[in-house]
Amino acid sequence: MNDEAPSSQSEESESRTWLSRLFTGKGQTPRTRQELLQMIKNAAETEVLDDEALHIIEGAIDVANQQVREIMVAKAQMVCIQIDESPSEFLPKVIESGHSRFPVLGENGDDVKGILLAKDLLPLVLKGAEGFNLEKHLRTANVIPESKRLNILLKEFRENRYHMAMVIDEYGGISGLVTIEDILEEIVGEIEDETDDDNEDFIRPVAENDYILKALTPIADFNRYFKQKFDESEFDTIGGLVMQTFGHVPKRNEIAHIADFSFRVLYADDRKIHLLRVSKLNTD
Fold first, then answer.
1. Which of 43-47, 196-200, 221-225 bottoms out in mean pLDDT, i.e. has the lowest?
2. What is the enclosing helix (H) or strand (E) of 200?
3. Gap between the Cα atoms of 147 and 126, Å rounded
């Protein structure tokens, strides 16, 4: 008779041993979430767990208590494509944003037509834009309520193999979107890839004296980066300051001049500016 236990039994035994070490000397198993968290922290202090494992376990427990509305990307910050836009209209924001998936909306802004994957635009490189039909390249959009719990959504992401969901409010209007990466970052911390800028979240140099700038860049950050003294009392972001200079919601390629800087709009919708190209006019 083979005395060696099956691997599944061996793993179960190791798990029980780990749990036994965790609860040894505590007198009882945890009865509440707070008791469990405290025991896990105690285990980290006695080096039963390392700090990274503690961080991940705490994140996993917190996710079970959170709803989608707490981590979603708000609609005002979404990079969307309109169903009636031509490639020449939507390609600049696809390129500048660097995202891999884009919600495609109908004319009223709350009608989700589907999700466009950036990789499905590769035929444009070979065949050009002539005859391109956006609707034929759309994937089904998954729609969820703001109140959905993150642990349930994560399970659905994994089981159904999708990566993005559109979020709707109680009236059926779009309030934002959420991705599987958003949830995973709640558990393990920020996930960066090779396209992320390690040094600057909002400001990205593209040439000498030329920069790509998110409109949500705080004026304080802009001042610090460019050694300026733009007024922070009326507006918090560069987008707000530039909008005031225009006096209206600008369209793509409109330009505003503030001090020694030229701000060209790369992407804006009918309510706000999202992305700017900034050039320093005076390089002395």
1. 196-200
2. none
3. 43
Scan for tokens 């979404």, then name that residue.
Answer: 78
Terminal-residue alpha carbon distance, the chain: 86
Residue 281 one-letter amino acid: L
What's the angle, vertex CA 155, arms to CA 149 and CA 54, rounded to 5?
Answer: 80
Look up the CATH architecture of domain 203-280: 2-Layer Sandwich (3.30)
Average pLDDT over residues 7-24: 50
**What is the DSSP secondary-structure string of 51-96?**
HHHHHHHHHHHHHTT-BGGGTPEEGGG---EETT--HHHHHHHHHH
Supply the angle between the helices 33-45 and 51-63 in degrees, to the nearest 10. Answer: 170
Comparison of pLDDT for 20 and 213, the residue scoring more: 213
Alpha helices in the chain (DSSP H): 7-23, 33-45, 51-63, 87-97, 123-127, 150-160, 180-188, 219-226, 238-246
Tell me the fold of 69-188.
CBS-domain (3.10.580)
Instruction: Please report the DSSP string for 217-243 in residue order.
Output: -BHHHHHHHHT-----SS-SBHHHHHH
Contact status, residue 102 vs residue 85, Cβ threshold 8 Å: no
Residue 193, strand partner residues: none
Report CA-CA distances (Å) from 267 to 81, 173, 226, 258.
Answer: 11, 23, 22, 19
Q: Judge residue 207's burial from the number of C-beta atoms within 10 Å of its C-beta, 0-12 exposed, 13-18 middle, 19 or more buried.
A: exposed
pTM (2 decimals)?
0.58
CA distance 178 to 148: 11
Q: Which of 212, 230, 71 is nearest to 154 (CA)?
A: 71
Q: Output the pLDDT for position 4.
A: 47
CA pair distance 178, 135, nearest whole angstrom:
22
Give me 197's structure tokens: 């800028």
